[in-house]
């Protein structure tokens, strides 16, 4: 009496069977590959029917290269990609990495823009400071020219003399401010301004 | 055309040049004091800029 299970072979035994018959794929690794590719199938007992396996191997394997024939074996696994699930994008690791990189780039761009706005050119600062103080000087000088006739008339002094006197006075004030310098003036304003409104950046 | 400076302006410009060329002059003085002094003493911007 023949036992049906007697003909069934383990993977190693099936590899030896193929080798003995001079068939390609006579190693355990080749058999494992063929099972993984779906070119041959193992039974529920984990063993192979050699006749059936040989037939499937022949049908599903490309004779020249040994790989799976087109359309044979297990269907190829689809490449993982983001697919919409319930209206939300399914996220894969590469996709998450790409999103994180995009956020990082956006944050860096914002940071750079903020830095550029906060930083200004030293040459521009010098020109701006000059312009500001020149406008102060021009206003003081203009005030002398505009206002000197009035006190001259009130005091009965010659207009030209009053102008020269006032101009000399204002020039003295301008010289004094200049001698003190903006940095010192600023420091003095800081000390004097303790009781006043606090001005901070 | 180069502007003609008065004696006071020339003296002021020379003093400013000395400050600018002094390596010990702090950056804040260079950026704020020097332009302010030049402006108040009537030194033209063109002359100051070339010195800066």
Please supply descriptive tags for the structure shown above:
heterodimer, A: 201 residues, mainly alpha, 3 domains, two-stranded antiparallel ribbon, 8 helices, 2% strand, rod-shaped, B: 52 residues, 3 helices
Helix share bin of chain A: 55-70%
In what range is the share of β-strand residues of chain B? under 5%
Please outline the major beta sheet of chain B. Answer: none
What's the shape of chain B?
elongated
What is the overall pLDDT average of chain A? Answer: 81
Structural class based on helices, strands and sheet pairing of chain A: mainly alpha
**What is the domain total for the residues of chain A?**
3
SS class of chain B: mainly alpha
Count of runs of 4 or more consecutive helical residues of chain B: 3
Specify the biggest β-sheet of chain A. Answer: 2 strands, antiparallel
Note the run of SSEs of chain B as H and E.
Answer: HHH
- Uncertain segments of chain B are none
Question: How far apart are the first and last residues' alpha carbons of chain B, in Å?
Answer: 19 Å
Rg of chain B, rounded, reads: 11 Å
The strand count of chain A comes to 2
Topology pattern of chain A, helix = H, strand = E: HHHEEHHHHH
Overall tally of domains of chain B: 1
Average predicted confidence as pLDDT of chain B = 86
Could you give a quick summary of the protein structure above?
The complex is a heterodimer of chains A (201) and B (52). Chain A has 201 residues and is mainly α.
Task: Explain the layout of strands and helices.
The complex is a heterodimer of chains A (201) and B (52).
Chain A: H1 11-20, H2 28-37, H3 50-60, E1 84-85, E2 88-89, H4 93-118, H5 122-147, H6 149-155, H7 159-180, H8 182-192
Antiparallel strand pairs in A: 1-2
Chain B: H1 7-21, H2 27-40, H3 45-51
Helix pairs in contact in B: 1-2
